[in-house]
Amino acid sequence: MSPSEYTFNSKLGFISLNTSLGPDQTLAVAFQYTVLGDSKVYQVGEFSDQGINSPKNLIVKLLKSTAVNTKNPMWDLMMKNVYSMQAYQVNPDDFIFNILYSGNEKGVPTAYFSEGGEEVKGIPLIRLLGMDKLDQNMNPPGDGLFDFIDNAATNGGTIQSANGRIFFPVLEPFGKDIRNLFSNPDLADKYAYDSLYTMTKSGAEQYPEKNKYVLEGFFKSSTSNEISLNAFNIPEGSVKVTAGGIPLTENLDYIVDYTLGRVTLLNEGILNSGTPINISMESNSMFNMQSKRYMGLHVNHEINERTNIGANHHQFK
């Protein structure tokens, strides 16, 4: 992969892809690292410029396979504390992010738990989960608002504004990290959504009594992955999209709703880079069906049995 397709956080030791992997795709890595106080360089896997054991083979560490198995050790390597807002180039001005719990008796979402000890009850969830430790000047203590600390994917923080991803500073925010807040085991069992981290998404959704957490907020963005063409019923195949002059591939880099006239960009790497995007299309307005009226008149005048004079008149409207 090229450097523009992923980011690397050397402090915390994780990589983030700028595009989503399909179910039939795998991800593997080779890397080197050192340990403080030790000059030795340790290596995991092989690099392409090193000796390869056999033709067209490369030994690497597998991070994602084509089969999702929650019992496999690879499952624990996948970070489950990152949430996408489906936005790009998020502006920190007027940014609001909150965590709500909707499992109360009255069913009204609240930003805090109504049970637990004084270290839990009534305290905002964003503070309990480490998202509010600083004020607007980045000094402690918290001020009740989300700490907008950018570049989380490379330097650590709470948000990656380029692709609109929220990074929780805990690994299982709605699982063991919620459980550890309660000294009462019954309350811990009630509020902890453990299946969210031990099962796949579809499996975790089978527990609706646990699925009560809501992420809510407002943001401003200078880029959107949906672009309106201000036209309807566009001829299929008539939309061409380029990024920096390079043609993009339909259904791979973008999809088109020809009926509503809307282009949705799928390649997050292009959106993150800020590359100018140009869209050309052929409007269907030039090919609309139009109703025409045709009128005709034919007159015959018989002078005698041997002489007959006729005339025709035609008109289009």
Task: Describe it.
This protein is mainly β and 317 residues long. The protein has seven helices and 19 strands. The protein has a three-stranded antiparallel beta sheet with strand order 7-10-9, with no helix packed on it. Strands 12-16-15 form a three-stranded antiparallel beta sheet, with no helix packed on it. A three-stranded antiparallel beta sheet has the order 14-13-17, with no helix packed on it. The chain starts with 5 loop residues before the first strand and ends with a strand.
Number of contiguous helices: 7
Write down the overall mean pLDDT. 85
Please summarize the sheet with the most strands.
Answer: 3 strands, antiparallel
Q: What is the H-and-E element order?
A: EEEEEEHEEHEEHHHHEEEEEEHEEE
What proportion of the residues is helical, as a percent range?
10-25%
Distance between the termini: 63 Å
Structural class: mainly beta
Indicate the radius of gyration in whole angstroms.
31 Å
Strand order of the largest sheet: 7-10-9
Beta-strand percentage range: 25-35%
Low-confidence stretches: 285-292
Shape verdict: extended
Strand count: 19
Question: Secondary-structure map with pairings?
Answer:
Blueprint: E1 6-9, E2 14-17, E3 27-29, E4 31-34, E5 41-44, E6 61-64, H1 74-77, E7 82-84, E8 88-101, H2 125-128, E9 159-160, E10 165-167, H3 176-179, H4 185-191, H5 195-198, H6 201-204, E11 213-223, E12 226-228, E13 240-243, E14 246-247, E15 254-257, E16 262-265, H7 268-273, E17 277-280, E18 294-302, E19 308-316
Antiparallel strand pairs: 1-2, 3-6, 4-5, 7-10, 8-11, 9-10, 12-16, 13-14, 13-17, 15-16, 18-19
